[in-house]
Structure formats: structure tokens, C-alpha cells
Amino acid sequence: MTSVDEAGDAVRLTTVRKVYGRRDNEVVALDGVTTQFSRGTFTAIMGPSGSGKSTLLQCAAGLDHPTSGSVLLDGHELSGMSETELTRLRRDRIGFIFQSFNLLPVLTVRQNVTLPLRLAGRKPSRSRVSTVLDQVGLGHRRHHRPSELSGGQQQRVAIARALVTDPAVVFADEPTGALDTRTARDVLTLLTQAARSAGQTVVMVTHDPVAASYADRVVFLADGRLAGELRSPTAESVAERMTHLGAYADERPRPRLEITGGGQG
After folding, report:
1. What is this structure's pTM?
2. SS3 track for the chain
3. Mean pLDDT computed over 6-31
4. Which CATH number fits domain 9-249: 3.90.1150.10, 3.30.1490.20, 3.40.50.620, 3.40.50.300?
């Protein structure tokens, strides 16, 4: 497996193309995308529905295989790895956060957080688990079950579960889509801290310009291609760019941009 400089990119995609279907039913989800996510940065991925956001995240995380092109993640070229190696890499070096919290209701907060480690046959470090639970503000709720927590607290559990292995990269797909504005802000602040304080790389797919404004950089997609980026974004600058992207992706009039909510990329 190929290695890269530790100070370089956590994830690098080179001319990645992803095609679904065959011949007459062919759909190009990604069309020659080249981009990178540097270590210790927080990047948001945005674009109109159907632009390829979720496909890019899945290919970058090794959850889906590009039709062609190269994905380098934490020093490993994914195309050269077996399914067993990919599973191990995702388990040890990647954290995942989704709009749905995916917690097991019969387990406590602590048990949910440590479940990936136990499934991998690793004994959780008591101090590491305590540190992560304190980091997300749930140290005092470690023995509670998901039904005893608010939606925002459940998403915090999901974040702690993603961070407990000290991953190189955290991939988040619409992590605030099911949360109210105040709770969403708290979750986004935690992701920002993960990048800036813990040095983890965070890559987040979102439809929400306010959520994207927490990132260091916003990468825009349209029709499966890169359509520019913004650094040090504001909600206003992101919303303006998204309005233009609507015209870029389709000349027909588009509905107003939704400031919150989920959907498929």
C-alpha cells in the first residue's frame, strides 16, 4: 500500500468517475472529479440535488468503488485494497456520522459509543471513552439509553462513536438534517473542534448554507463535476453560490433554496 506525507492530504481524489447502469440507462454520478481534503480541515460539500455529493462521499470513504480514477485515503490507495482491508481501514481510520443516529436502543450511551471497538475485538480504553464523552458534553449521561436522550444528544452520541477510534477522517452526511437550529449549531461546533483541536479531517455533505458556513472550505458540485469552491465561507456567500449553481446545473427555473433539511445528493 502506498503512503503519503503525514502533513499532506488525508483524502485525495484524482479524476474520479462513477457511472451507474449500462448503455442506454447509464447515469454519470461523478465525471472526472479531482479534489483533496487536507489533514485537520473541515470541508463542506454542496450542490443541487443529484449533483453527486453523496456519491463523492461514498467513493472517498471506500463505501463505493469508482468506475475509474484514484482515491487515496490516509495513505492508502483504495483500488488496491481487498474488501477485508477496506473494512479494516473504515473501522480503524474513518468515522461516520449520518442524519439518522443509528443507535441501538437497548444499549447505554457508553455501550453505543464503544460498540465499533468491541465488534473489532478491541478493548475500549476507559480514559479515551471518558474523554470523548466529555468532549461531546455527555459524560454525565453515559449510563442513559437513547430513549432517555433528546435528538441532539443522540447525535452527540453518534459523534462520540465516530471519534472514539481517533480516526484520520470523519465523513458526515447531512448530520444536522434532523435537528433544530440551536442543536444543529452545537453539533457543528463539535465538528469544528474535532478538526481544529483534535486535528481530524471532517468532510460533510449538506444542503444547508448555515451549516456549510462552519467549514473552512466549501466544495461545490453540479452535474457530477466540480463547480468551484469557497474558503472562509459565510451563509450568505454559500447561498448566493448555490443560487448560481441551480442555473449552472439546469437552465430551467428552480425552487427556492431550502436552508435546512435533508435529501439525496
Report:
1. 0.86
2. CCCCCCCCEEEEEEEEEEEECCHHHCEEEEEEEEEEEECCCEEEEECCCCCCHHHHHHHHCCCCCCCEEEEEECCEEHHHCCHHHHHHHHHHHEEEEECCCCCCCCCCHHHHHHHHHHHCCCCCCHHHHHHHHHHCCCHHHCCCCHHHCCHHHHHHHHHHHHHCCCCCEEEEECCCCCCCHHHHHHHHHHHHHHHHCCCCEEEEECCCHHHHCCCCEEEEEECCEEEEEEECCCHHHHHHHHHHHHHHHCCCCCCCCCCCCCCCC
3. 89
4. 3.40.50.300
